[in-house]
Amino acid sequence: MTADAPQLWAEHQVTTLAEGARDWTVPPYGSLAWSQLPPNDPRRYAAVVEAAERWRRQVAEEQRLDQLADEDPAAWYAEVTAGANDEARRLAGRLARRRTQLELEAVRTHRPPHLLRATPGWPPVAIPGRPGRYLHPAADLVAA
After folding, report:
1. Alpha-carbon distance 61 to 43, whole Å?
2. Contact, 84 vs 78, CB < 8 A?
3. Long-range contacts of 118-126 (CB under 8 A, 24+ apart)
4. Distance from CA of residue 110 to its chain's centroid?
5. Closest by CA position to 76, among listed 90, 59, 60, 62
6. 82-97 and 73-80 are packed helices; what angle lies between their axes, rounded to 10 degrees?
7. 112-144 pLDDT, tens per residue?
8. CA-CA distances (angstroms) from residue 9 to 16, 52, 56, 97?
9. CA angle 39, 41, 47 (to 5 degrees)
10. Which residues contact 26 (CB under 8 A, 6 or more apart)?
11. How far apart, in whole angstroms, are the C-alpha atoms of residue 59 and residue 51?
12. Hey, CA dihedral for 52, 54, 56, 58, is it positive or negative?
């Protein structure tokens, strides 16, 4: 048997079960939808076949990685970290374009606080942080 023979057999079984079916949505094996199917529904069997095939592939992949780890640890490490390395490369470009904290602090301007003044003809200005206190226009400005 070739490596693909079990997969081909599983696909053939599911295809054979689906012949003549109008609605062929196979719920995942063990799900609530699967358990609500009638016992003789061919989709129940198809879900079992699909679940078994997925399990076979997962076990085969784990065995392949275990064998690779035994035979060539560097190749195993490169393979299992490839996704993380791709993500790190993607993020590195974005991070390289961002300003550092020192650069942000250098461009930040520290302006002195604004000096509040009351303008003649306008109501008094409330003093921030001092409830009930107001600035009134100077008496010499009001007379002018």
Report:
1. 27
2. no
3. 120/144
4. 38
5. 62
6. 50
7. 777 888 888 889 889 888 899 998 887 655 444
8. 10, 12, 13, 52
9. 95
10. 14, 43, 46, 47, 50
11. 12
12. negative
**Residues 6 or more apart from 33 whose CB is under 8 A from it?**
27
Q: What pTM does this model have?
A: 0.54
DSSP string of 14-31, one letter each residue:
HHHHHTT-S----PPTTS
- Residue reference for tokens 């020192």: 102
Give residue for tokens 């301007």. Answer: 109
How many residues does this entry show for the chain? Answer: 144
pLDDT in tens, 32-58: 999 999 998 888 989 999 999 999 999
Neighbours of 43 (CB within 10 A): 21
For 10, left (φ over 0), alpha (ψ -120 to 50), or beta?
A: alpha
pLDDT at 144: 45
